[in-house]
Amino acid sequence: MFFFLLIILIALYYILTCGRWDRRYRNYLDILHLNLPFSKQELKIPYRKKALETHPDTVGTTEAFREVYIAFEILSQLAS
Question: How far apart are CA 54 and CA 62, in angstroms?
């Protein structure tokens, strides 16, 4: 019983201190090469550059383009 309680407390501590959501947003910032704080206008320029680089009609792949698009959508919601 004590062992399970200890595991739950460790997991809760990890979630609160490490912040799974913070790592996810940090990954999105790294994809678009942005730093905090940013505005919506500052977000559009790197998005357009990465979208041109990763677009399937040019050299990129569909997965890479989708990743850039998702990063832009989530970060644009945070910027507003």
Answer: 8
pTM metric for this prediction: 0.64
- pLDDT tens column, 51-71: 998 888 888 788 888 888 888
Rg (CA), the chain: 17
Are 59 and 30 in contact by the 8 Å Cβ rule? The answer is no
Cα–Cα–Cα angle for 50, 78, 27, nearest 5°? 50
- pLDDT tens digits for 14-57? 655 555 545 556 688 888 888 777 788 888 999 999 899 888 88
Instruction: Give the integer Cα–Cα distance in Å for 55 and 53.
Output: 6
Q: How far apart are CA 26 and CA 76, in angstroms?
A: 14
Match 């019983």 to its residue by tokens.
Answer: 1
